[in-house]
Amino acid sequence: MTTTIKRRGVLRAGALGLSGLALPYPAWAQTGSPGLRPTSPPLSGEDIRLRIAHGMFDVGGRTGHAIMLNGVLPAPLIRLREGQNVRLHVENALDEDSSIHWHGLILPFHMDGVPGISFPGIKPRSTFTYEFPVKQAGTYWYHSHSGLQEQMGHYGPIVIDPAGAEPAPYDREHVIVLSDWTFRHPHEVIAKLKARGGYFNRNRQTATSGSMSAADRAMWGRMRMDPSDIADVTASTYTYLVNGHGPAENWTGLFTPGERVRLRIINASAMTIFNLRIPDLPMTVVQADGMDVKPVETDELQISVAETYDVIVAPADRAYTLVAESIDRSGLTRATLAPRLGMTAPVPALRERPTLGMKDMGMGGPGSGHAQHGGTAAGGMDGMDHCTAEHAAMGHCAPGASMKMDHSMRDKSLVPPSVKVGVGVDMIAPMPVDRTGDRPLGLEQVPHRVLTYHQLAPLVPFPDKRPPARSIDIHLTGNMEKFMWSFDGKKMNEGAEPIRLALDERVRINLINNSMMNHPIHIHGHFFELVTGQAHGHPIKHTVNVMPGGKASFDLTADAPGDWAFHCHLLYHMHAGMMNVVKIRPLADGGAQ
Amino acid sequence: MSLLAALLLTAVQCTPEHAAMGHCKMTPAAKPKPVARQKPKPVANPRPRPAAAAREKPHPAVTPRQQPSAGPVCTPEHAAMGHCQLPQQPAAPAPSSPAPPLPTPPATDPCTPEHAAMGHCRPAAATPAAPPSSAPPPAARSGPDHAADAIWGADAMAPARRAVHAEHGGFTDNRILLDRLEYRAAKGRDGYAVEGEAWFGGDYDRLWLKFAADGTFGEPLESAELQALYSRAINPWFNLQGGVRHDFGHGPDRTQLALGIQGLAPYWFEIDAAAFLSTKGELTARVEAEYDQRITNQLILQPRVELGLSAQDITELRVGAGLTEVEAGLRLRYEFVPEFAPYLGVEWERSVGRTADHARAAGERTGGWSFVAGVRAWF
């Protein structure tokens, strides 16, 4: 467990530099925070009260309209203990429906907080009480599942302390909530995306930029695809936040040299996948999505939307910059870890923007060993050469002929008839391969260690050892120009057939990404085993980032009866239709109590 | 060590995929376990035993670890080359990436067969390959359609359910584009031109309005047209559009039926092609193509071509059968914001064929150059 004695000393320092109640941040999110203190946790106990209301949010010298909980952004930290019961009384002071979904928590489906699927929603000027037993430990978060409210600030962290010993002990902890803020109304954001899919991309390929050959440019043009289309919404409108602070505000978390500091990193963004690093300070990942993993040391990790990573760092007596760079490198945010308030470390410049490659088009290519294709290599046509010397020798193919192979980018015969390849599907990946072992997009060639899913091993293996009895393929589909997103070519409003599972059934879900975008896919109410094929075990997660043109599989034990949301956690992708319902039957007696 | 060496050797000579296709035989030492496991496991009773332990996910008990299999025999790459057929589900689970034995080090199992033989460890249990893709068991269809109805009541849930479905994908919007609003400086008389469009609707069905007019300063409107079309998306990039067009301005008015396609062609060409049938039975057509070449992210050069065609002579309008006119423009715009871009450019237009003859007979010009300056805006 944490040592409260060490913390006492810095507690005063924290209180000194801060004015407390008047600030629109919870104490842990204030700059100069000494970290979380079990002695005065922000919100804990059996009864917790939250109030959703409009508020004004300041960043970078501007003020914008936000939806805040208890008047702060991010929303208050909820700190619970495994084994307790909790009642959360949520008052909706908005003029529209609202909701809170407890992201990653195992609870009865009707407490999951998705309007229209798990409950009717929280009506304006009413209070809804969530009540459930806390069955797990780890770092989680909560957010609105109504409309686009999450974009406006309706998100906050949850930390659950284990009932037993902490497997990854630490001396101090900081919560790092990453998010993206825009002064535009979210309805305006999606309207722009619908009008022009690449609206927010101000770093497109031009006649003179980049090193791409004319042939490659022609190929991308023929497909009507843009190799610079990495993120739909970019720093052209977003300010990236750490604990509600923009880069200029430089949120600072304090530590005492020699301490083991645990950073509970939550990507609460609407649309932004971040590359996260702390130059000169290796991070030991001890938890992913709230589940303990065998410690693995790394220098940089990519955290997709809705994922969480807990890392432990051992900083020396100096300041460090925590850098969170958006995946398209249109912008970054920074925070500082320092022994004393006011200290800073250099902020690295934005690195060159990545470019999609053949593997991102679903052109397969050799296994994960060739992950360096694409990325900044801009094109990587050699990734297409499936005619290896061995094959050629056996007369199976002619080397060099690969460019002549007909790689239709929309071959309907590659998907089952249940996939509707219509207006909403502009691409079928010709040869999608499992990419869970690949370095994340844009980090293929950085000269330091980068976390991959294959490196994650559960500290405690998943209890259900049964092999999956059947598999379900789910195609991730979209139309970039029209900004339509769906599963199996059917948007949620088009009556997509729910995913039906029998209670306690064990299934393998194969996610096949037929688009050139990353999609963080999240299932409610369950953890799954991400099938990495690694001998050290499969990580247990609630959200998996499926790389462009790639595949990811997970094994799921359908042990929670009820209806559960299943969706891409990029907010506007979900809003555009990339969502479905997982129905697990039979329900227990009297519903799912 | 010997296993690794054997694996590497095999990598060069006989890949598991090839072996499986009968193209070569693998040395027994290197025979990777996974291939043997590829045999689809018949599932006699798909209904699994209830796993009570599974509910205690967060802190499960320690049990033997699993070992992966190496992936399907028929990789997509092979299938694409026609060497084999993919299983019915093209995405049969590939526990590890279907990794051809290339530089990638094989996934290391600390418990090698040699060790196991010496009794030092127990080989990990295998992750079975490719479970079949099958329909959900009957139990999955039992119980109420909507679980939440049982808790909150169908009346409370129905409107929320309608809303959640409509909200996720059911988007309608509108856009108004003023494509060209420009001053045309030409020899003789300066003029103006305006062209724009607006749409209202969702992803598939839209009401699409198009408007164009041009003229010479000091003279009456030369030509103007308004189209009201129903637009239906027919593939990811193109819309089929049908409706009416009304021409007014100089000369006799015409009302016409319009049928065309508009969209984005390969290589990012914006295409708008339509045929028109007037109430007098005259058939004409128009094809427009334009392309945005980004010089920088804000400076954009747009070449544009427009062709007019007619199926017959229309003396009243001084139009001849065949190709009637050609317009070509080159505009350089600067997008201060994507919604607003002033531009400079040149425009060349010319009547051709018998249409040009008509013009000459009437003593009119058959075309020429003009310099243009204008704005492009949308909202």
Automatic annotation (TrEMBL), chain A:
<dbReference type="InterPro" id="IPR045087">
    <property type="entry name" value="Cu-oxidase_fam"/>
</dbReference>
<dbReference type="GO" id="GO:0016491">
    <property type="term" value="F:oxidoreductase activity"/>
</dbReference>
<feature type="domain" description="Plastocyanin-like">
    <location>
        <begin position="173"/>
        <end position="325"/>
    </location>
</feature>
<dbReference type="GO" id="GO:0005507">
    <property type="term" value="F:copper ion binding"/>
</dbReference>
<dbReference type="InterPro" id="IPR006311">
    <property type="entry name" value="TAT_signal"/>
</dbReference>
<dbReference type="GO" id="GO:0042597">
    <property type="term" value="C:periplasmic space"/>
</dbReference>
<feature type="domain" description="Plastocyanin-like">
    <location>
        <begin position="466"/>
        <end position="586"/>
    </location>
</feature>
<keyword id="KW-0560">Oxidoreductase</keyword>
<dbReference type="InterPro" id="IPR008972">
    <property type="entry name" value="Cupredoxin"/>
</dbReference>
<keyword id="KW-0732">Signal</keyword>
<dbReference type="InterPro" id="IPR011707">
    <property type="entry name" value="Cu-oxidase-like_N"/>
</dbReference>
<dbReference type="InterPro" id="IPR033138">
    <property type="entry name" value="Cu_oxidase_CS"/>
</dbReference>
<dbReference type="Pfam" id="PF07732">
    <property type="entry name" value="Cu-oxidase_3"/>
</dbReference>
<dbReference type="InterPro" id="IPR001117">
    <property type="entry name" value="Cu-oxidase_2nd"/>
</dbReference>
<dbReference type="InterPro" id="IPR006376">
    <property type="entry name" value="Cu-R_CopA"/>
</dbReference>
<dbReference type="InterPro" id="IPR034279">
    <property type="entry name" value="CuRO_3_CopA"/>
</dbReference>
<keyword id="KW-0186">Copper</keyword>
<protein>
    <submittedName>
        <fullName>Copper-binding protein</fullName>
    </submittedName>
</protein>
<dbReference type="Pfam" id="PF00394">
    <property type="entry name" value="Cu-oxidase"/>
</dbReference>
<dbReference type="InterPro" id="IPR034282">
    <property type="entry name" value="CuRO_2_CopA"/>
</dbReference>
<dbReference type="InterPro" id="IPR002355">
    <property type="entry name" value="Cu_oxidase_Cu_BS"/>
</dbReference>
<dbReference type="Pfam" id="PF07731">
    <property type="entry name" value="Cu-oxidase_2"/>
</dbReference>
<dbReference type="InterPro" id="IPR011706">
    <property type="entry name" value="Cu-oxidase_C"/>
</dbReference>
<feature type="signal peptide">
    <location>
        <begin position="1"/>
        <end position="29"/>
    </location>
</feature>
<keyword id="KW-0479">Metal-binding</keyword>
<feature type="domain" description="Plastocyanin-like">
    <location>
        <begin position="62"/>
        <end position="162"/>
    </location>
</feature>
